[in-house]
Amino acid sequence: MALVVAQEVPASSSMAVPHGPAGVREARHRMRDQLRGGGVPESIVDDAVLILSELLGNACTHGRPLGGAAVGDGDVRAAWRVDADGRLVVEVTDGGGPTRPAPATPSVTAHGGRGLNIVTALCADWGVRDDVHGEVTVWVIVHDDARDPDAGRRRDDFATRVTAPSVSAMAELSFADAVEELD
Hints:
Blueprint (H helix, E strand, L loop, with lengths): L12 E6 L5 H14 L4 H21 L12 E8 L5 E7 L20 H8 L2 E6 L5 E8 L14 H5 L12 H8 L1
Antiparallel strand pairs: 1-2, 2-3, 3-5, 4-5
Helix pairs in contact: 1-2, 2-3
């Protein structure tokens, strides 16, 4: 029989991150250390860190810094917590931008535009909240029960959530039709 010692994940953590790539690494490391120290399963920690990276990257690419600072001079805010129900929540707040955060449909050759699709595939839920003074917060529920020791093992459906349907499942697309068009 194994003895399991539960540690409490800090109720919340929030930090200012420079508007740009410089602070993303520090935020990822701090999140990883706190969640690991709190006993969150490693696969959930990995998902949370990837989600935080995507959200911070989007905030720095598409959003303005908080407080009306010039781009590159201000900060965005990163926060994460395990709430009273055990849900791991990640939030990134910026000063707003010209567009609303939404998953894109990039071309196959596009160099970007897949971040929120990755977030959607990895999380339980996510959304956008408009805050005071034009601030915009993207929130993500990474997992519904970050305290569940088996939570990290429930990855059976991941491949089906992130892969395209098979060609044979697309009735309107036939290999024979494609070859005939080449003649």
